[in-house]
Amino acid sequence: MLARILTIGMGLALVPLAFDTAKAQTTGSVHGGGTRTSPFGAGGNAPGTQQPPPEQAPPAQQQTGAPAGGGGEIIITGEDPQLITDLLQEWGYKAKLTDDGEGNPKIESAIAGVNYQIYFYGCQSGQACSSIELSSGFNLENGIGLDVMNDWHSKKRYTRAYLDDNQDPWLSMDINLYGGGITSATFQDNIYLWESLVSDFKTQINW
């Protein structure tokens, strides 16, 4: 059991966390959280690691799954991880549906040249999940200081940035899917926001 170090503004808070080593990686909008850039930009992994495949431009107006209420819009909930996987692939991203080792779904993906995972929470027997977390860890040779995390939180919204017990930085973002879900357009906008913030975070930590 380690203490997850959350840095909010210029204050520090220690939050107990059971660190999941299975989540560790060796690879590394207009929402007030960063300037929207092209959602298909390139990035880089740590030296000697395999580069995630480049993202491709998304097919125009392509939809997957049943539209909600006959209105033509797809509703994303935590009940269909395969739909989320399929949509990510249609939008040009690498995506593979697996599990977290505890019976809950997990999606492995890559964005802005960085591998990340989508974890499902609030699940009932591995199904009908109520929220997801997008999470990426960055393995730095000498770790990084709390001042860098504090600076991030003083300027950005929507994400949590914290350090593990090796002083390596992590970035995560939650998406609530409870209470009827969200439209695919809103979900796609969240993915674009995540990409913009991951790209900014790489600059923040000099990745």
Automatic annotation (TrEMBL):
InterPro entries: Put_sensory_transdc_reg_YbjN
Residue runs in coiled coils: none
Biased composition (Gly residues): 30-46
Keywords linked to the UniProt accession: Signal
Keyword flag Metal-binding: no
Region entry Disordered, spans: 26-75
Signal peptide: 1-24
This protein's name: YbjN domain-containing protein
Organism expressing this protein natively: Neogemmobacter tilapiae
